[in-house]
Design goal:
Elements: E1 9-13, H1 17-29, E2 34-38, H2 41-50, E3 57-61, H3 69-79, E4 84-88, H4 93-105, E5 109-114, H5 120-135, H6 147-155, E6 159-168, E7 174-185, E8 189-191, H7 197-202, H8 206-226, E9 232-237, H9 239-242, H10 247-257, E10 265-270, H11 278-289, E11 293-299, H12 305-311, E12 316-319, H13 331-346, E13 350-353, H14 359-368, E14 372-373, E15 382-383, H15 387-396
Parallel strand pairs: 1-2, 1-3, 3-4, 4-5, 7-9, 9-10, 10-11, 11-12, 12-13, 13-14
Antiparallel strand pairs: 6-7, 6-14, 6-15, 7-8
Bound molecules: ligand C2E and magnesium ion (2 copies).
């Protein structure tokens, strides 16, 4: 059966307890996977922080004590670009309209402006519009950070790292996590890579970011290891950072200082980003010689994948999510997925499917023998201090999402 709302995470913000409960009941009835609630803007921001800012839909009242809905929309626009919003308010229609104009300006996807009272059908319609917007590929505009904002975040060490689990598909055993950088900005809150990686690279600041991510991720992995949780950590490396010839020695030294061996660390290099300089081959070879894992990331999105696969000593192939999500329902996607899997396997690599969001795709991956899955179905990225608890709950539930 089609359950279009099962993957949705909705945040409901209203100062009235009865409206929050009413909305939660309707959304649950409509099959929404996760409904979060907050009583005002400040509480909503705190909730966003605990879930990595990854909500699909915000339903918010506009007039609330403390941080009001308008200010909340501005903050959400900065921290969750493109997110869908539905406002509910007893304010007059013209005022509601001007708020919706503002929200659109902020890059939010406005699904509607409900007056009070509203009913179940209004919410049902809004969810239908949500799916319609997503289906028609509405763009998610991002507001990139400026070089100065990035420089200041790096200087003040406002880098945070969130982690997304990677699990074996046959046993559901957690094998590792991928470290994903975020920047804490005083104005926007926690900012995701889409708003800073490109400019960080272009502005020559990626090396600084990479070194800070390495420090944080390996320190966290050291902490988990001391708690008895041995997880492999994947670290994303841009081609401009990989040109530092001393990178393998540096990572090895940081790992050793936290009691970790190179075999617990996998360097992920995005296929599309790979340069062709000899430094890349040099650094990759020395990572492997020291025992680090080496992954080709976002496989399927780059240009010259095949020659590179042959000439670089990769241990892992990560199939990009566009060839994973929806594979069970599309012959074309499935064909690319299966060929990538076959290629990775024949070259002796461990194959990871990225962006696994739907149970049917997981089942397909199981059937075709893919090794590892990563994606929202297992877990969204989470802060480091949530990883050990998550891993324990995952194990207790027998590895079920
Ligand atoms: P990536 O390395 O391919 O990381 C996976 C991205 O896919 C993450 O986004 C993750 O949150 C997202 N993702 C995982 N599962 C799902 C899913 O089921 N559905 C959807 N829609 N998305 C999913 P994030 O954290 O925004 O990172 C985006 C990219 O930014 C990364 O892609 C990586 O290329 C880059 N990046 C992140 N951290 C760093 C870093 O420390 N250094 C460098 N150079 N690049 C980084
Ligand atoms: Mg990656
Ligand atoms: Mg990737």
């Amino acid at each position: 059966m089609d359950k279009p709302n099962a993957d949705l995470r909705v945040l409901v913000v209203d100062d009235s307890q009865s409206i929050r409960s009413f909305l939660k009941a309707i959304l649950t009835e409509l099959g929404v996977g996760e409904v979060l609630t907050a009583e005002n803007g400040t509480a909503a921001i705190a909730v966003l922080d605990t879930c990595d800012g990854t909500i699909d839909l915000l339903i918010s009242d506009l007039a609330m004590p403390g941080m009001d809905g308008v200010e909340l929309l501005r903050m959400v626009g900065q921290r969750c670009p493109g997110v869908a919003v539905l406002t509910i308010s007893s304010l007059d229609a013209r005022l509601r309209f001007s708020v919706s104009q503002m929200a659109q300006h902020l890059g939010l996807t406005v699904l509607g402006l409900l007056g009070k009272p509203f009913g179940e059908q209004d919410i049902r319609n809004a969810l239908d519009r949500y799916h319609e917007v997503r289906r028609t590929g509405a763009v998610m505009p991002t507001d990139p950070m400026s070089d100065a904002e990035i420089a200041s975040a790096l200087h003040d060490r406002r880098v945070e790292v969130h982690y997304q689990p990677k699990v074996r598909i046959d046993s559901a055993h957690v094998v590792g996590v991928e470290a994903l950088a975020r920047l804490r900005d005083p104005r926007r809150g926690l900012v995701h890579p889409a708003a800073f990686i490109e400019s960080t690279e272009a502005g020559g600041q990626i090396e600084n970011l990479t070194y800070q991510v390495i420090d944080i991720a390996l320190r966290d992995a050291g902490t988990w290891a001391r708690e008895g949780l041995r997880l492999n950590v994947g670290i994303n490396i841009s081609s401009s950072a990989i040109c530092r010839l001393d990178l393998p020695e540096h990572v090895e030294a940081v790992a050793a200082s936290h009691g970790l061996s190179p075999s617990q660390i996998t360097m992920e290099i995005t296929e599309a980003e790979m340069g062709s300089g000899s430094e890349l081959f040099d650094v990759c070879a020395r990572f492997r010689i020291r025992g680090f894992g080496l992954a080709i990331d976002d496989f399927g999105t780059g240009e010259s994948s095949l020659p590179r696969l042959r000439s670089l000593p990769f241990t892992e192939l990560k199939i990009d999510r566009r060839y994973v999500d929806g594979a069970a329902r599309s012959r074309e996607i499935r064909a690319i997925l299966e060929s990538s899997l076959d290629l990775g396997r024949r070259l002796g690599m461990s194959v990871v499917a990225e962006g696994v969001q739907q149970v049917e795709d997981w089942q397909l991956l199981e059937q075709i023998g893919c090794d590892i899955a990563q994606g929202y179905l297992v877990s969204r990225p989470m802060p480091g201090d949530k990883v050990a608890g998550w891993a324990l709950r995952w194990k207790q539930r027998g590895g079920n999402a």
